[in-house]
Amino acid sequence: MRKALLAGVLAVCAGSAGAETTIRIGYLSVAQPAPPVLSNLDPRPDDLGLAGARLGLAENATTGRFMGQDWKLSETVVPEGGDALAGARTALAGARLLVIDAPASTLQAIADLPEAKGALLFNATAQDGELRDEGCRANLLHTIPSHAMRTDALAQFLVGRRWTDVALIEGPHPEDAAFARAMSASAEKFRLSLVGRKDWRFDADMRRNASAEVPLFTQDLDDHDVLLIADEVHDFGRYVAYNTWLPRPVAGSEELVPEGWSPVVEQWGAAQLQGRFEEAAARDMLPEDYAAWAAVRTLGEAVTRAGGTETDALRAYILSDAFELGGFKGSPLSYRAWNGQLRQPIPIVTDRAVVATAPLEGFMHQGNELDTLGLDAPESACTAFTETSQ
Amino acid sequence: MIRTMTAILALAASPAIADEIWVTNEKDDTISVIDAETFEVTRTIPTGERPRGITFSHDYSRVYICASDSDAVQVMDPVSGEILHDLPSGEDPEQFVLHPDDRRLYIANEDDAITTVVDTETRRVIAQIDVGIEPEGMAVSPDGSTVVTTSETTNMAHWIDTQTEAIFANTLVDSRPRHAEFVKDGAELWVSAEIGGTLTIFDAATQAEKAKISFEIKGVHEDRLQPVGFELTPDGKTAFVALGPANHVAVVNAETYEVEDYLLVGRRVWHMAFNADHSLLFTTNGISGDVTVIDVAARKPVKTIKVGRFPWGAALRPTEG
């Protein structure tokens, strides 16, 4: 019954929409060695990010059915230690639109390939500030929020709560340092006082020792309202809460976390997106999945609204004021014309609930309040976009 | 005239005789029944999970409720508040519209990208029509020839021929369409777009876009101006448009398409229903968990009524015989 009806629908659409256009998107994943962590609780899903791209493609294809569009996703995986640039060349040979899961330096090298000239690349995982700053590339857009967008979101929340004295514990990994740097900059931007700071140096197994070690470790921090953790690899941070010398809330990489997406987001129709994802991937939707989904959906919107598949025209439309994407976070999503970053609200979440969503009320901006999060036009040293768009 | 009659009846008989506004409480799994004269909640009726869309049969002897998370459309006796039976609705029914034949119910299945057509008498599915992702807004033309489903993520209005139960046209609208209505005796189709922040007006005969309405409230960022439900006065001259998290209802001149006024209501205003003589408008305010009563002539909110958690849909049940 349904099959027959579907055939009828397609026939009608084919008549009205004319010839089918095929749009090819490539998903390129460059596997990175995962640092060892104390807990075994959170295995990294094999299809992290990719599952979001697949869902986005299915959604584009549903719309495409009515528009005479045929959407294809090709998936390229570069194994650990493999040749990322060779993988990128292969992906670019099959598609001029790529969604990429790779570290910052690899992303830049891919964007600089001769084969990537005139292609449109989406960074769906790297949060590094540099990619939105002097290290930006005109053909590289970012759907994952930067560290700065996340830490600005948290800083706004702390200011709103008047928890303005903060202490910070920083892990030993480069990602931890990047998050800590962003957190310090956000503290300055929103006038929080960083009253104490320590580096995490333990090599003990905290599953047994947290209750003994953490109180002593946090004892010599000056009094603070909230303890911030920079532990982006999720190694030690989970053992800090409830073991601190002073009874203080914990935030940052653990406990109260600013994220681009979280399974606990349910307002603004998010429950539907979560449901679709869960059904398709048999697990919760994580920030990397959301970022890949947003990249593919961006292309869906652009092809439908701009009415073409030519890469330069898509890029121009995506970076224009006309572009907007419904992202299930309460505000339309759009791209910053100065560095290609997707503007988006940042939910501030615990494992069980959304505590707040940034930008918080009262944080004003002359253009778009979402630009109170992350690098605003005057702060960004990215010039690649102004050169090409003007 | 009708109001006077109601007053007399109310005096003469039991207090339950006044017109009622039925409100579905999405997160309480209940309906709050509001007395349209006294503004009191007179009954709270349990429903299936996550009730959203609500509509009455033409003679008001049945009320249909989309119990979204129960994957059912429930049929209730409005007098007793008892569920008589469920209709096979497809998964996650969110909104629906009852055909002028008083028999066919067109249901948007939000999770399945399908519009299901159910015969309410035989309780059978007549057809399932593939539409865009997250179908929600449902409208039927007064002559019954056309049903429109809008899909929130595909951002389209799908025009369905009710003879063949097949789509005959698809028109793009702005981001996240939420609600659709045929107005002015079916001459126009209005579609609200929540994220796009607009109302698009189509010429129903040609499906061509005719006008687009935007909103602007001083001190409220444009991203918060998210039109969802709307209703027109019976003369087709004035539209009331719920603006979601802007916490206002816009009053639109439906002839010039100009916004004339903004009325402050509760938080995240969703949908609305008029009383019988259209002198009052009741809006559901999702986040504040209440209903605002608007005096239509004065264009003023006059009362706030506490209901259940996350009130969503609203429908009038006139009770004078």
Automatic annotation (TrEMBL), chain B:
Signal peptide (UniProt feature, chain positions): 1-18
Tagged with keyword Signal: yes
All residue ranges annotated as the YNCE-like beta-propeller domain in the record: 10-314
Keywords linked to the UniProt accession: Signal
Domain of life (superkingdom): Bacteria
Pfam families named in the record: YNCE
Protein name: Membrane protein
Gene source species: Salipiger pallidus
Lineage: Bacteria, Pseudomonadati, Pseudomonadota, Alphaproteobacteria, Rhodobacterales
